[in-house]
Amino acid sequence: MSIVAIGAVIIGATEEAAIVVLLFLIDELLEGIAPSQACASITGLADLMPKTAFLLNDDSTSEVPAASLTLGAIIMVHPGERIPTDSLIIADSSAIDELPVTGKSMPRARQPGDAVFAGTINTDAVLWLSSSKPSVSNMCRPPMPPSSCLPKDCSQPDPGRAFARHWLCRCRADVCRHPGG
């Protein structure tokens, strides 16, 4: 940026130099805003997860923490409730509102054998689901970048990658604050 601005001043194009500097400052401002909004969106997606689920135990159901659901757990979801974990429908049919997760505005009819995502809303009837993933690996859970991609020590400055290092350290801290993260 400074080379372009100095070159523009040398050739007498001071207005262009000022515009270039202004555009680079706006770029820096936007680069500062984008990561915080991305982390806020990831956090908001994780907040869609219900805290409890109705687990089938022999002939009765009991309310358990959604984080304790394991692979293959049989759960019941009432109309109007959010689905607690990525699952497969094993009994009954219902329309599923996927707007909070996928952005599709119309509920979609789902039948036994169809996959449903954690955080979506059951709209029509009681559904019986079999969890297809442990709740710690749900679609709504914020992804944890591979540790080899993250800076080892966030306190050490790295001038060439200051922006990326700052963003990764902030997101890693945000992800680690979530249960199961």
How would you characterize this protein structure?
With 181 residues, the chain is an alpha+beta fold. It has two domains: 32-48 and 140-181, no CATH class; 52-137, Distorted Sandwich (Calcium-transporting ATPase, cytoplasmic transduction domain A). The strands form two sheets. Strands 2-1-3-9-4-7 form a six-stranded antiparallel sheet, with no helix packed on it. A three-stranded antiparallel sheet has the order 6-5-8, with no helix packed on it. It has helices spanning 2-10, 14-46, 99-102, 162-176; strands at residues 52-57, 60-65, 74-77, 87-91, 94-97, 108-110, 115-116, 121-122, 127-131. Helix 2 packs parallel to helix 4. Mean pLDDT is 77; it is low at 140-155, 157-168 and 171-181.
Classified in CATH, the superfamily of the largest domain is Calcium-transporting ATPase, cytoplasmic transduction domain A
Specify the biggest β-sheet: 6 strands, antiparallel
Give the SSE string: HHEEEEEHEEEEH
Poorly predicted tracts of residues: 140-155, 157-168, 171-181
SSE inventory with pairings:
Elements: H1 2-10, H2 14-46, E1 52-57, E2 60-65, E3 74-77, E4 87-91, E5 94-97, H3 99-102, E6 108-110, E7 115-116, E8 121-122, E9 127-131, H4 162-176
Antiparallel strand pairs: 1-2, 1-3, 3-9, 4-7, 4-9, 5-6, 5-8
Helix pairs in contact: 1-2, 2-4
